[in-house]
Each structure stands twice: as structure tokens, then as C-alpha cells.
Write a structure and sequence with these properties.
- This protein is of the alpha/beta class and 299 residues long.
- The chain is 36% helix and 9% strand.
- The protein has ten helices and eight strands.
- Strands 3-4-2-1-5-6 form a six-stranded parallel β-sheet.
- Helix 8 packs parallel to helix 10.
Length: 299
């Protein structure tokens, strides 16, 4: 795989997938710019080499529709300040305006594309149809073809693709996965942030120092069960989101707003089995296992 440190971006247009899904206050002002600062080494490397920079990201969950609340135009000036240079902005990530702006970009210049998720093709999920609908499979297949065209359009703006969006890299979206198919092996690479995170994970998996503690988190609990199952000799306290899903499913009297994910019910017995068979290694904070079992018992 190409290494960003060894690549010279001089005279190249690089399109970089970052994670600028930063928190905003009611006035559209950034309250935490950690994600922007985390991408700076990659972005500045491209500019310092003499390349031109096209930045793409998502913000929030607009569900495939334009929503001013999630416009990246709100953070353009903050990105410009962080980079120390002007940033151009286009009101769409694909289409004539974006294509022209990218084509006219000169070395040292920066272009920020509008929110990728204003298009359903980014996530590749059919819109306006339930999974239970007999026509869903056909709609999904059609959307996957559209996703390829969407990714191809993004790829056409640049000579090089860089993925530095660690927070969304696990998703097979147009900008994080599909787009890579349209670049040669030597013209696609990970950014510095991605390399750092991948190396950290690799160090743990290949040269683990025991004992250690891992905090497992995330709201999609059904995808997390593999982590403690793969290392049963390790202690895994779960974070608030995982616990919240447990509590919701247990139907306890707590102020919880969202319903549990349907898939969680299928993995809950596995969590209970781990806490029973490995009581010293799998922990549920605040909630006692006995209380959880009682809550789940048929009345």
C-alpha cells in the first residue's frame, strides 16, 4: 500500500475523506474542533508538497436530503483558519458546480465539498422504502449501482485519494470504500490519522501486554459482541451507550428516549452468558447482573 509519508503531492489534486462531523451549537458554531485538528497533518502535507486539496466529509444524519442544519458551509471559515489559507466551498459535492470548481483548483488551493450525506448514494441505502417491502431488494440493488456512479463522480475530481476519516472508515460508503476502486494502487492511501489508529490497533492485536482493560462502546451493540468473545481473558467494561441498550431491552424504569435496536435482542443472551461465565472479565457498570436478569425474567 502507498504510504502518505513517501508520496509527493506536487502538481497533484488530492481528494481527502475526513471526518468533520463536529458538534455545533444552536448558532452553528463549533464547540469542539478535535476532528478538524486531527486531520491537519494530512491536509497540510498535501498543501506543503504543492498539491491542491479537495476535502469531503459528512455531518450529522440528513438521511439523503439537503438540510441546512448539516451544511458544511457552516465550518468553512473554521477549516480555513485551521489550515491558514482560504477555503473555497461549493453547495453540492457532485454536479457541474463541484466538477468545475475542482477542475479549476490550482496548487496550494483548497476546496470543501458540501455534505456527502445530502445524497443517499453516499450511504448506499434505499430511501422511502421499508426493508420488509418485497421491492426492497431491487431498490437496494439499484441504489448500489447509483452509489458506484456517485463514487466515480467524486473520484473524477482528483489524481489521488486519501482516506483519513477513521471514525467512518468501517462503513462501506461511497467516499470511504467504493471510491477507492477508481484509483490505482499507487494513487490511494491512508492519511496520517488513519495510519496512527490502524497502527495502534495492530500493536494491540500483535503484541498485546496483559493485563489490560478495553472500554467497549457504541450504540450498535449487536456488532460489539465479537470484541469480548475474541479475548475472553480481558476485562471489558461497557460504556454508556452499550449499557443504555441493555437497559432499554430490560425495560427498566429509566428515562430512555430511543427504542432498542431490533438486532440487540438476538445478542443479549450472549452478553449474559459472558457475564455469567466470565464474571471477573466482563463488567456492566452501575447495573448489577442480578437486577438485569430479574428484569429480563418472564413475569
Amino acid at each position: 500500500m502507498q504510504k502518505i509519508d513517501n508520496f509527493n503531492f506536487a502538481g497533484k489534486k488530492a481528494i481527502v475523506r475526513v471526518d468533520f462531523n463536529v458538534p455545533l451549537d444552536e448558532n452553528g458554531k463549533i464547540t469542539d474542533d478535535t476532528r478538524i485538528r486531527g486531520a491537519l497533518p494530512t491536509l497540510k502535507k498535501i498543501l506543503n508538497d504543492g498539491g491542491s486539496l479537495i476535502i469531503m466529509s459528512h455531518m450529522g444524519k440528513p438521511k439523503g436530503k439537503v438540510n441546512a442544519k448539516y451544511s458544511l458551509g457552516q465550518i468553512k471559515d473554521d477549516v480555513a483558519k485551521a489550515l491558514g489559507t482560504d477555503v473555497k466551498f461549493v453547495s453540492d459535492c457532485v454536479g457541474p458546480e463541484a466538477a468545475e470548481a475542482a477542475a479549476n483548483l490550482k496548487p496550494g488551493e483548497v476546496l470543501l465539498l458540501e455534505n456527502l450525506r445530502f445524497h443517499p448514494e453516499e450511504e448506499g441505502k434505499p430511501v422511502g422504502i421499508d426493508k420488509e417491502d418485497p421491492a426492497y431488494d431491487a431498490a437496494k440493488k439499484e441504489m448500489k449501482e447509483k452509489q458506484k456512479e456517485f463514487a466515480k463522480a467524486l473520484a473524477s475530481y482528483a489524481d489521488v485519494y486519501v482516506n483519513d476519516a477513521f471514525g467512518t472508515a468501517h462503513r462501506k460508503h461511497a467516499s470511504t470504500a467504493v471510491i477507492a476502486d477508481y484509483f490505482d494502487a499507487n494513487d490511494k492511501m491512508l492519511g496520517f490519522l488513519m495510519e496512527k489508529e490502524v497502527q495502534a490497533v495492530d500493536n494491540i492485536l500483535s503484541d498485546i501486554k496483559r493485563p489490560f482493560t478495553a472500554i467497549m462502546g457504541g450504540s450498535k451493540v449487536s456488532t460489539k459482541i465479537g470484541t469480548p468473545k475474541s479475548a475472553l481473558a480481558t476485562t471489558y467494561p461497557t460504556d454508556g451507550k452499550v449499557l443504555t441498550q441493555v437497559l432499554r431491552h430490560a425495560k427498566l424504569s429509566l428515562p430512555l428516549s430511543n427504542p432498542p435496536r431490533p438486532s440487540f435482542g438476538t445478542v443479549l443472551p450472549e452478553y449474559l452468558n459472558l457475564t455469567t461465565s466470565q464474571p471477573d472479565h466482563v463488567l456492566l457498570p452501575t447495573l448489577s447482573l442480578r437486577r438485569l436478569k430479574t428484569a429480563l425474567s418472564p413475569s
